[in-house]
Amino acid sequence: MSVELQYEEKTQRTSRFTLKGILQDPALLFAIAVISVFLFLFIIYPMLKIVIYPSSETWRRFFTETRYMKILKNSVLLAILTTFSSTLIGFCFAYALTREDFPFKRFFRATSILPLISPPFVTGLALILLFGRQGLITHTLLGLDVSAYGLSGLWFAQTMAYYPVAALTLSGVLKSINPTLEYAARDLGQSEWGIFKTITLPLITPGIASAALLVSMYSLSDFGNPMVIGGPFRVLATEAYMQVTGMYNLPMAAVVSFFLLIPSLGIFLIQRYWVSRKQYETVTGKGGTLEAPPTPPIVKYSLLVILSIASLLTISIFVVVICGAFTKTWGVDWSFTLANFSYTFLSKMKDIWNSLYFSLLASLGTALLATFASYIIYRKKFWGRNALDLIAVLPGALPGTMVGIAYILAFNRKPLLLTGTAAIVILSMIVRNIPFGYRNGLAVLHQIDESIEESAANLGANTLQVFKDIILPLLKSAFSVTIVYTFIKSMTTVSAAIFLVSPGTNIATTSILGLSEHGYWGQAAAMATILIGITILTTLLFETIGGKEKKLFDF
Amino acid sequence: MISLTRKTFLRVITVLMLTLLFVTASAYASESLVVYSPLHEEEIARILDKFSQETGIKAEFIRLSAGAVAARLIAEKDHPMADVFFGGSAETHESLIGEEILRPYQSPVLKDIDPAFYHPEYYWSGFYVGAIGFAINNARFKEKYPDKEYPTTWEDLLDPDYKGEISMASPAASGTAYTVVATQFFRLGEEKAWEYLEGLHKNISFYTTAGAAPAQHAALGECTIGIAFGHDVMKLIQSGYDLTLIYPKDTGWEVGAVSIVKGGPNPEAAEKFVDWILDVDGQQFHSDISLRVATHPKVVLPEGATPISELQLIDYDYEWAGQNRDRIVEEWNKRFLD
Q1: 3-state class of A149 per DSSP?
Q2: C-alpha span between A312 and B277 (Å, rounded)
Q3: Which of B27, B45, B67 sits opposite A246 (nearest CB)?
Q4: Is the Cβ–Cβ distance between B292 and B128 less than 8 Å?
Q5: Average pLDDT of every residue of chain B
Q6: Residue A277, pLDDT score
Q7: How many CA atoms lie within 13 A of B84 on its CB side?
Q8: Sign of the alpha-carbon dihedral angle for A287, A288, A291, A292
Q9: First vs last Cα of chain B: how many Å apart?
Q10: Which of the residues A50, A178, A527, B156 has an alpha carbon 20 to 30 A from that of A119?
């Protein structure tokens, strides 16, 4: 690149972001091509299959039957409730755990990770055993005769399941706030509340929006919890599954799951409009070296109470599962047994290894793809950018059942023959977690000023070099959070995988669901315990390899 | 986390790509018999182990609900991955004939089996029979209804005192529940059947999605009475739950079938498996571990199972049930879910 050209670019800041600019940077062109092909092939194309597959008669039926409209309303109501509670609790966790002076941080961090590690139907079962008609807490301790099934139970289960998602998202953002800003505000005479209102809140607004958006999408497409604890409260995600299992009605299942997109799209547009008006950047990039100022005692102790209650509930869920694994027959014969574990070791180890192996590949793939995509799509101006942005977050709104069916329909013939392979399972895991990694990347990118990249670009670095040398190091917290999250999510996923696993590529969760569906709770709990154990060990291993500075549980 | 220097970054990508390729390639190489089955996870594993020991044919399986197996076989029609659809009500197998998913196979063993238990054109063959029963939670029943006798007929379930205490699966999601609904049609005729279901609906706590779930709900005390297949209830009783199983008068039943997938990768192994599971040894083994009643007359009934001859079964026309399924479930949805 000639000196004149560099000079010209300096004077015309925007030239890199025009078509001419893109053509001058083949690396960028290549990157856009790779991301576009991936997103179109594995998200848009299967979705098109879902839209084309049902007949117009099926579409018409969906609209004319009030039942479906009621289910649609249920889904939206649940999503609103869960989003509110999960984001609130998630924020409390993220805020508390990023303060220097908060007590028992390791403990709270560990417990907030637990719900992510557990397959959802196990959480649901534990809730029934604890709070159901014969529940340990509701019946045995309090003498109540209440059912855990329905909206309140489901809301509770989803809140417990998704507050860690919000916490993970928000902590990444909270951590990157430079404490010098807080000191500066204090020196200028701001109160604690004033600091929170004028500095912390505006800076984390994109983060809160990201977290809320993500939680609401997970709530809408959640399949495990409504299956186990929804009871009479019916939602779209399970309705789609019922259409398949009960009616063998793939077309109607496709239509029902398609309608999950509408509320998700609504949320997406609101978030987008809101966040785009409230952008702030901490110009220096990432955190300073100053220690953060102390937290006011009232805030500290109220947070301590909230976190303690949430953690206690989480722990009791896990105690129930682990106890179940060692109990002969829950509720009847409480004697200790190891028989449940011997079954798993004898006939189910292959499924567990598959889970581990697929999840590792999926988490690396997701982190690389999603982080890279977030950088390219957020920073570069090119035609079709908005469309790619939308596509990258869409999978969060797709119920697993829909992804499963769509993948079977889309990849069952040459040249795209993937059914029966491990690749299709891994790809479904990657695609379903891209929104999380992508949003995570965006939330951090919001706070990195463009001038840093521009400087590098003006010194002659192409897109790939800028990404590698500047963006990736700055995004490493988002990157590592994505790895952990995807790994754990993939270890516990069931709804899409259940359609995609084959004999030989079976994974642990589908086996656990099979066992618990038929009342082998002991074996299911034992297998879940082993799965959870392996998940914890692997994430700890990641952490050890990475050293102390770059924690995977990056709260 | 691995520190992200340029080198490691490239290495990670390379490793990722290579493994993905390797995995994709290796997954094609499977030569085992491929089984899709809605039976219990543990049962399938043990039955296929036994089959492999005796025939030397390796077998792999996945467990899905019967409807999910059907949906999946339909979706995979152009490129069948499975050899055998093992277990599940004959109705489900029946529904796949029209889709041209199944290949008829006349096993030599069928000469020993009552023709009522296999398809006249050999699309599917039955290897067990199951009947619908009531699972009653003894403790909860005695606590709530100290003066009542256990229900023994379908009409008994209409007692208003049972409001919110009966659990049943949704016929829109479960084959078991559809058998329950269809039973009322064979028992009472169309008009009266809907009246009966309206009455029963008033006592249902809610409709579960899995067919065996009502038995579990009764076992856990989530409800007092669960309507499910008798063998699902027996399993819970054997694992120690305090339940009583009652087969009502005029109860519904199913034939559990096995069928061969058209164009599956291992057609010969599939036939060997069908022969094996239909013959005395295979059926005996299945019956012993599952407590289901075998269709082969020479199989000795396992302890705890009730012989078919002691049950008062309804004249269940699975062909009619299969053909009218969409209409009935549609109507059921309209009446009870809107």
Answers
A1: coil
A2: 50
A3: B67
A4: yes
A5: 87
A6: 58
A7: 30
A8: negative
A9: 51
A10: A50
Q: How far apart are CA A349 and CA A508, in angstroms?
A: 8
8 Å CB contact between B136 and B246? yes
pLDDT above 90: residue A33: no
3-state secondary structure of A128: helix
Decide if B215 touches A, using CB distance below 8 A: yes
Preferred mutation among A256, A363, A518, A521 to probe B, highest tally of B CBs within 10 A: A518
Instruction: Please report residues of B whose CB lies closer than 8 A to that of A248.
Output: 67, 70-71, 74, 95
Q: Which residues pair with A388 in a beta bridge?
A: none
Contact A247 B326 (CB under 8 A): yes
Query: What Cα–Cα distance (Å) separates residue A346 from each residue in A342, A510, B7, B45?
Result: 6, 17, 41, 11
Higher pLDDT, A546 or A321: A321
Backbone angles phi, psi at A102, to 5 degrees: -90, 135
Give per-residue burial for B240-249: e unless 16+ CB within 10 Å, then b.
ebbbbbbbbe
Distance CA B86, CA B34 (A): 10
B173–A250 C-beta distance less than 8 A = no
CA A308, A309, A310: angle at the middle one, nearest 5?
A: 95
User: Measured between alpha carbons, how far is B217 from B194 in angstroms, rounded to an integer?
Assistant: 25
Q: Give CA torsion, residues B204, B209, B215, B219, to 10 deg.
A: -90
Please report the sign of the dihedral spanned by the C-alpha atoms of residue A326, residue A332, residue A334, residue A339: negative
Burial class (CB in 10 A: 0-12, 13-18, 19+), B297: exposed
How many angstroms separate the first and last alpha carbons of chain A? 42
Q: Choose the closest CB to A510 out of B1, B35, B62.
A: B62
Q: What is the DSSP string of B251-292?
A: B-EEEEEEEEETT-S-HHHHHHHHHHHHSHHHHHHHHHHH-P
Q: What is the DSSP letter of B306?
A: P
Q: What's the pLDDT at B16?
A: 66
Nearest-neighbour CA in chain B from A332: distance (Å): 6
pLDDT of residue A518: 65
Structure tokens at A40: 């179109």
Nearest 5°: the CA angle A404, A408, A414 is 150
Give dist(CA A265, CA A272) in Å, integer: 10
Chain A residues near residue B239 by CB distance under 8 angstroms? 329, 519
According to the model, what pLDDT value does residue A240 have? Answer: 77
Q: DSSP secondary structure string, A460-525?
A: T--HHHHIIIIIHHHTHHHHHHHHHHHHHHHHH--TTHHHH--TTS--HHHHHHHHHHTT-HHHHH
Q: At what angle do helices B190-203 and B175-188 cross, to 10 degrees?
A: 130
pTM of the model: 0.76
| A285-299, A364-378, A406-420, B209-223: range with lowest mean pLDDT | A285-299
8 A C-beta contact, residue B67 and residue B222: no
Highest mean pLDDT out of A326-335, A391-400, B142-151, B301-310:
B142-151
Distance from CA of B196 to the nearest CA of A (A): 21
pLDDT tens-place string over residues A40-90: 999 999 988 888 888 888 888 877 777 788 888 898 899 999 999 999 999
The whole-angstrom separation of Cα B13 and Cα A370 is 14
* Residue of chain A minimizing CA distance to B177: A246
pLDDT score recorded for residue A519:
64
Return the HEC string of A94-116.
HHHHHCCCCCCHHHHHHHHHHHH
Q: Measured between alpha carbons, how far is B176 from B307 in angstroms, rounded to an integer?
A: 20
Contact yes or no for B81 and A502 at CB 8 A: yes
Asked if the C-beta of B35 comes within 8 angstroms of chain A's C-beta atoms, the answer is yes
CA distance B274 to B125: 8
Contact A417 B79 (CB under 8 A): yes
Cα–Cα distance for residue pair A475/A172, rounded to 1 Å: 10
